[in-house]
Specification:
Layout (H helix, E strand, L loop, with lengths): L1 H7 L1 E2 L6 E2 L2 H17 L3 H25 L5 H19 L8 H23 L8 H8 L15 E4 L2 E4 L4 E2 L4 E4 L4 E4 L3 E3 L4 E3 L4 H26 L1 E8 L2 E8 L7 H32 L4 H5 L9 H9 L3
Antiparallel strand pairs: 1-2, 3-4, 4-5, 6-7, 8-9, 10-11
Helix pairs in contact: 2-3, 2-4, 4-5, 5-7, 7-8
Length: 315
C-alpha cells in the first residue's frame, strides 16, 4: 500500500510529472507540525523537544538499514534552516531588533547553506576515480606505498588495495558502504548532507558548521530577548549584549510562543553542531580522521600546528 501511494504521489513538472517519495515529504510535514504543537503550552513544548531527538535517533537507525541513501535528514536540515529564517522574518518582533542584527543573521544562515551545498557538491571529488585506479595499478603513484594495518584492505607489492572494490587506492582511503565507493581521507559519512566528508569537502563542512552555530546562537538570543523581558549583561564594542530574564508569560500569545519554541529548537540544533565541532577540532589537532579514530588508529601524526596547516591547505 505504501509503495502504491508513493508511486501515485507526483507533482506536475516540465517534461513530465515528478515522483515524490515519502522521505522527501515527511521532513517538512513533521517539522512544521511538531513546532506548531510545541507552541500550545509548556507541557507540549517539553514533550515535543524530548520526542524530536528520540525520533531522529530511531529514524537514523531504521533508515540506515532499509534506505541508507535517504534524503530525509538532508531535507530535515534544509527545512529547519528555512523554517527558522521564515519564523525570524515573519514572527519575531523586528521592531525590537537593530537592522544590523537582522542582516547578520541572514548572512550567517546564507553562508551556512552555501557551505553545506558546496560540501555536498564537492563530495564526488573525494571518490577514487577510474583514472586513479589505473594509475595506482600501473605503479605510477609513489604515494600508494605504505604498510597498512587496515581491516578493509589487502597489501600487494607494497600497494594498498580495497577488498570491496578490488582496486588499488591511495593511502588513508576508506570504502564507504553507503556511497559504494572508496573515499580519499574519509572522515565520516554525513547523513545530514547525504554524502561523505573527505579531503575535498572537509574544510567547507567545518566552515558550514561554524557559521550555522553562530547563526543559531544569534537567532536564539535575538528571539528570546525580543519575546521575553531582556536584561543587559555587558557591552562589547559599543553593542549591549542582553539575555532573557522572564519568559513566564510567553504562552499567552501564540505567535510569541512560536518564537520561543523556535529559539529552543535552535539551541537544540546548536548543541548537536557544537558537539560535532568539538570532535572535529580534537581529531584535526591530532592529525586523524573520524574513520581512523573508529578503526583504532589513535596515533598522533604530527604536532597540532602542522596538522592544522595540513588541513587548511587541503593536503
Amino acid at each position: 500500500m505504501l509503495l502504491t501511494f508513493q508511486d501515485r504521489l507526483r507533482i506536475p513538472w516540465r517534461g513530465g510529472a515528478k515522483q515524490i517519495t515519502v522521505d522527501n515529504v515527511l521532513p517538512v510535514f513533521l517539522l512544521v507540525s511538531l513546532q506548531l504543537l510545541a507552541a500550545l503550552d509548556f507541557y507540549c513544548s517539553l514533550a515535543v523537544f524530548i520526542f524530536i531527538p528520540l525520533l531522529l535517533a530511531y529514524l537514523r537507525r531504521f533508515l540506515g538499514r532499509v534506505l541508507p541513501k535517504t534524503k530525509f535528514f538532508c531535507l530535515w536540515l534544509f527545512w529547519s534552516g528555512v523554517y527558522l529564517v521564515v519564523l525570524f522574518e515573519s514572527t519575531v518582533p523586528l521592531s525590537e531588533l537593530l537592522p544590523e542584527e537582522n542582516i547578520a543573521f541572514v548572512v550567517l544562515m546564507s553562508l551556512s547553506f552555501l557551505c553545506f551545498y558546496k560540501s555536498n557538491q564537492r563530495a564526488v571529488l573525494n571518490h577514487v576515480s577510474h583514472a586513479q585506479y589505473d594509475s595506482l595499478a600501473n605503479g605510477d603513484s609513489a604515494t600508494a606505498i605504505l604498510v597498512s594495518d587496515r581491516e578493509d584492505s589487502d597489501e600487494s607489492d607494497g600497494r594498498l588495495a580495497c577488498q570491496t572494490c578490488r582496486k588499488y587506492v591511495p593511502p588513508r582511503t576508506y570504502h564507504c558502504k553507503i556511497c559504494a565507493t572508496c573515499v580519499v581521507k574519509q572522515d565520516h559519512h554525513n547523513v545530514w548532507l547525504n554524502c561523505c566528508i573527505g579531503r575535498a569537502n572537509h574544510r567547507l563542512f567545518l566552515l558550514g558548521c561554524f557559521c550555522s552555530l553562530l547563526a543559531l546562537w544569534l537567532f536564539a538570543n535575538l528571539s528570546l530577548t525580543s519575546v521575553c523581558h531582556p536584561t543587559p549583561i555587558f557591552t562589547l564594542l559599543g553593542v549591549t549584549v542582553m539575555l532573557p530574564d522572564d519568559c513566564s508569560d510567553i504562552y499567552f500569545q501564540y505567535d510569541i510562543a512560536l518564537c520561543f519554541t523556535g529559539a529552543i529548537y535552535a539551541l537544540l540544533m546548536s548543541l548537536i553542531i557544537l558537539i560535532c565541532l568539538l570532535k572535529q577540532i580534537c581529531l584535526i589537532s591530532r592529525g586523524l580522521t573520524g574513520s581512523e579514530w573508529q578503526r583504532g588508529e589513535h596515533i598522533n601524526r604530527r604536532n597540532c600546528l602542522v596538522n592544522w596547516k595540513t588541513f587548511c591547505l587541503g593536503q
